[in-house]
Amino acid sequence: MTDAIVIRPTRVFKMGAIRLADPDPTLAPAEAVKLYEKAYPHLAHAELGDPQLIGEELHFPIKTHDVKTKG
After folding, report:
1. Is the dihedral of CA 41, 39, 49, 15 positive or negative?
2. Strand locations in the chain, DSSP E?
3. Sequence ranges of the domains in the chain
């Protein structure tokens, strides 16, 4: 019998061209992104897209809503 090696992919949060490292791998993805809200306030209303495995990284796209103005 051979030993199986399990590799846990590194989570990366993508916001356009910006890559955000996973601040706490023990948290759920949505909770981990909330830790970035102080630096990126618009993340308070953002949603995570479906993750995509690229190499040894699991990329989560961050979908932000367009800013609307009255006028």
Report:
1. positive
2. 10-15, 18-21, 47-48, 52-54, 57-63
3. 24-71
